[in-house]
Specification:
single chain; alpha+beta; 5-stranded antiparallel beta sheet; disordered N terminus
Length: 213
């Protein structure tokens, strides 16, 4: 009975950590929480507000050794769309629908993790949202933008997640209302509690085996 209870506790801890697919972690300083770790894909995502008001060329030039974004790379459109799915957002091309259908909570969560890039939208018609550029270009100078945001108009929400949408001259144009989806592969250490439970379980199983012998 003791072993069975211990096993249940271990499974509870492990399942909790598996279900928590997205985790905010620090980037440069303690408590900045500028990285979102996706345990499903194994990718870290940099907060989009760290790359807003930069062009594609600006960001690309800082990806190498010694650059501001050393160790990062541009996310592919497929990787970004998979992240949208993690937030519970649909994959669609310039889908404008009522916020209730767009899952406003999902957009809010996305903003919480990746930053509000639409806060300084010049037309002030967007309430909040996240938008960024990915590593996909149908033609030179037209890297694609993916985003999800709610308009000031309560009946409108927009999801931009299709690579068929081209954006004008993002190679050279810098705007304050979009960032850039940068990712890096990493492994987040398993919480010490899981190791503690696991080592204890192994010990108990060993004791039980000796008792049966």
């Amino acid at each position: 009975m003791l072993i069975k209870s211990y096993l249940s506790a271990v499974l509870l801890v492990v399942s909790f950590n598996v279900s928590a697919a997205l985790l905010s972690i620090d980037w440069k300083t303690a408590g900045d929480l500028l990285i979102t770790h996706d345990s499903v894909s194994g990718l870290d995502w940099l907060d989009l507000t760290e790359t807003d008001n930069l062009s594609y060329n600006d960001v690309s030039s800082q990806l190498g050794t010694g650059g501001d974004f050393e160790g990062w790379r541009y996310a592919t459109a497929a990787e970004a769309e998979d992240l949208f799915v993690q937030f519970g957002l649909p994959i669609a091309f310039l889908l404008e629908i009522p916020p209730s259908e767009a899952n406003s909570t999902a957009i809010t969560n996305m903003v919480t993790f990746l930053g509000d890039t639409l806060a300084d939208y010049p037309a002030n018609s967007v309430f909040y949202g996240t938008s960024g550029v990915v590593e996909y270009a149908a033609s030179p100078g037209t890297h694609q933008r993916l985003g999800a945001y709610l308009w000031g108009d309560p009946t409108r929400a927009t999801i931009e997640t299709s690579v068929t949408e081209c954006c004008p001259a993002f190679d050279t144009v810098a705007e304050t209302y979009f960032g850039h989806y940068l990712v890096q592969s990493t492994v987040v250490p398993v919480p010490s509690a899981v190791w503690l439970f696991g080592s204890g379980l192994i010990g108990l199983l060993g004791v039980a085996r000796r008792m049966r012998v």
